[in-house]
Amino acid sequence: MKKLCFLLLFLPFVCLSQTTYYNPSKQLDINITVKEPFKRINYAEIGKNFNNAMQNELAKREALKQYYENIYYETKNSIIENSIFTNDYNIDNLINKLQSTTIKHIDVLYTLLTQGQKQPNIFESDLKKVYYEYNNNNRQLAYISKYKYQKTNTISSPNDLSEFNIIFEKAINSISSFTYDYQENINFEINEINYDGSKSINNILTFISMVCDKKIDIDALKKNYEVKIKNDAVKEKEEMWKTTQSIYVLYATRLSTLKSLNENEKKKFLKNEVKFIKKRMPNSYMYYFSNSADFIPENVIFYIVDKKIFIVKGKNLDESIFNESFFNGSTDFVFLFELLNYLKDESGVKIINPQ
Q: Can you give the pTM of this predicted structure?
């Protein structure tokens, strides 16, 4: 037992003493066996293969480009050559409007494709949809002539027939154009009439028949439209008049406030006003002052207030003719609006109302 214990204690030392270490003074013989001979990389072949792949890809892209160009032109030509007409001037005029709108829409689709804004497969799908829908819509418009023929055959009185033809012509001519919506559906537009019914081209015959059956009075609708346009114009002019008065108050208030400030306060006000306008109008402030300016020239503001608002400045609303472009988001209007914002919200001074 004692011998066994002694052996177990001594064994690790024996093992450690048998470990072999590299002696740098002795020569180390290292032999590496290469099973396969060294193979050089053929860069010329790799480059050739890459160039061929690129050429194939370019050829493929050019073929696809030619394919989409071909279906674009072929679709347009097919629409022009295969459209159905009726020999009725008014109906054929509608068909020509539909054809023109469709051709322009196809041009838009192709432009989106060539500019990379529409995927090729989506372009092809949209093109097919437009083409087949045009054929259906063309037939619907051509069918109007059949409706007219059937209707006139039921009218025996020459006076009634003459009246029907007049009303029918009004109905047809009230349709001014066709438009595509964002879902690629086509609608008809009615000139100078407020029509609340569906304007889908699928309902165009419904509209025409309702007019011819006197369920829709085009003359009355036109009068209502004219009254609405007139009233809207009056309201718009009144709004411009109110806005003008507000601009005058702003201009006078700014002057009154500046007069109430001492010299240092005034310099600070004007300097911060320039910084505010630069920040709010970074792309257009230089229309009014230079980049190095410490204040906005007073004559610049006065010129806008005095010269840009009216075409004809009358004594009252009725005598005045407004410069409508000034009120429709012009840079001058925005400039005055930002001056007001600075005066009210950012100047930090007491606002003095004009006497």
A: 0.64
Contact residues for 238 (Cβ-Cβ < 8 A; gap 6+): 317
Kindly list the distances between the CA atom of residue 177 and the CA atoms of 4, 97, 135, 222, 223, in Å, as whole numbers in the listed order: 113, 6, 17, 17, 21
**Phi, psi angle pair for 186, to nearest 5°:** -105, 140
| CA–CA distance, 43 with 40 (Å, rounded to integer) | 9
Gyration radius of the chain's alpha carbons: 42
Query: How many C-beta atoms lie closer than 10 Å to residue 302's C-beta?
Result: 12
3-state SS assignment for residue 188: strand
Distances (CA, A) of 226 to 171, 174, 180, 232: 18, 14, 26, 10
pLDDT tens-place string over residues 37-57? 556 766 667 666 667 666 666
Which residue is it, tokens 């840009």? 308
pLDDT in tens, 74-124: 999 999 999 999 999 999 999 999 999 999 999 999 999 999 999 999 999
Structural tokens at position 231 = 């009233």
Q: How many residues are present in the chain?
A: 355
Helix, strand, coil in percent for the chain, rounding step 5: 65, 5, 30
Helices and strands per DSSP (H, E), number in the chain: 11, 4
